[in-house]
Design brief:
By secondary structure, this protein is an alpha+beta fold. The protein has helices at residues 8-16, 45-48, 58-64, 75-91, 115-133, 145-155, 168-173, 185-193, 199-203, 207-214, 216-225, 255-275, 307-321, and strands spanning 2-5, 25-28, 40-43, 69-71, 95-100, 103-107, 137-141, 160-162, 242-252, 280-289, 294-304, 328-336. 40% of the residues lie in helices and 21% in strands. Bound molecules: magnesium ion.
């Protein structure tokens, strides 16, 4: 099964602000009357009706719907809600693999012997999550991770969708190429240029031709198009954050001192990220001043595991937001929304 929380950040906000429930709501960067930079992180289904999507520039969303509710990203709160929801899901799992703040695979190898009982389990999990946290989710049920993921997409929102192994080809064949998990826009364009329009076309494509064009990735793609995925539900991975802090021997207002500390901390954090074979999406810089006030700034970036991405984002957050006058006592760099994918999702990462 794949459990995916529906419009997660906004759903979390709805819990503590019931008044936004029937309004188009967007969690993301400050739209600043249409001048804001940065993107929409999540929006609810009411906002989606107007064509607003996660990942869209916040300024575009503002142009479409200036009177929507715009909320800032409260990552600590969403992580807390994620731990609660995932904790419930985990209780039902034989094997459990969390893949992002709001998604997890569940294997029911021992408990479940057929599809009917798997669906019964999915209902129980969904109900328990909803009862214990108040949050909606969708569950895809199938014979492997790829199909569970695709089923989940098809079941959204607030659904349970079963795709049996024997139904996989039929289920997949009419879908757009970039609906197949792991195929991005560029690959889609190449495939279309070769004459393949749908997942069904790719399933029946000439394997040699795919290999010539894409190497082993072509073979994996074709396997996916046929609903084949042998990857395991991998346990021992928990979403958390990785951070380092440094307290200065003497409080400082010196920009060069602070930036050197940020580079040093970024380097330490990246070492740990890479050792754990993880990647991150959110960078947070914390500044504690000599007067003990604290300043926390976060930014979401494209998923990465690279030093340059971390150091440049952290430097930018410091440069934009640090006080010019207050002396800094302590500085911290932290990454969160950890995942296993490196950069953009690649098909090889799950096949
Ligand atoms: Mg989700």
């Amino acid at each position: 099964m794949l459990i995916d929380m529906d419009y997660f950040f906004v759903a979390c906000e709805e819990l503590r602000r019931p008044e936004i429930k029937d309004k188009p709501t967007i969690v993301g960067f400050d739209p600043k009357q249409g001048e804001g930079r940065g993107v929409v992180m999540t929006c609810n289904y009411l906002a989606r009706k107007f064509g607003i999507r996660s990942g869209m520039p916040i300024s575009t969303a503002y142009r479409i719907k200036p009177d929507a509710v715009y909320l800032p990203i409260d990552y600590d709160y969403y992580e807390k809600m994620s731990r609660e929801a995932m904790g419930v899901a985990k209780r039902y799992a034989d094997r459990f693999e969390q893949v992002s703040i709001d998604e997890a695979y569940i294997e029911l190898s021992r408990k479940s012997i057929d599809y009917d009982s798997a669906v019964e389990y999915a209902k129980k999990i969904k109900e328990s999550i909803n009862k214990e946290t108040g949050l909606p989710c969708t569950i895809g049920v199938s014979s492997n991770k790829l199909l569970a993921k695709m089923a989940c997409e098809a079941g959204k929102p607030d659904g349970i969708k079963l795709v049996k192994e024997e139904e996989a080809k039929e289920f997949l064949k009419g879908k757009d190429l970039d609906d197949l998990y792991g195929i991005g826009r560029k690959t889609k364009e190449k495939l279309e240029a070769m004459g393949y329009k749908t997942v069904g076309d790719l399933a029946k494509a000439n394997t040699m031709e795919l290999m010539e064009k894409f190497g082993s990735y072509g073979v994996e793609m074709q396997k996916s198009a046929n609903g084949i995925d042998e990857s395991k539900v991998e346990e021992n991975y928990e979403v958390k954050s990785i951070g380092r802090e440094k307290t200065f021997e003497r409080d400082t207002t010196e920009r060069t001192v602070a930036l050197a500390a940020i580079r040093e901390l970024s380097n330490e954090v990246i070492k740990e990220v890479q050792k754990a074979e993880l990647s991150f999406k959110v960078v947070t810089v914390k500044m504690r001043y000599a007067d003990f006030t604290e300043h926390l700034k976060s930014r979401s970036i494209r998923r990465s595991d690279q030093y340059d991405d971390l150091a440049s984002t952290a430097t930018d957050l410091y440069s934009k937001y640090a006080s010019r006058v207050k002396r800094i006592r302590k500085i911290g760099v932290r990454v969160s929304d950890l995942g296993k994918e490196k950069g953009q999702k690649k098909i090889n990462s799950f096949v």
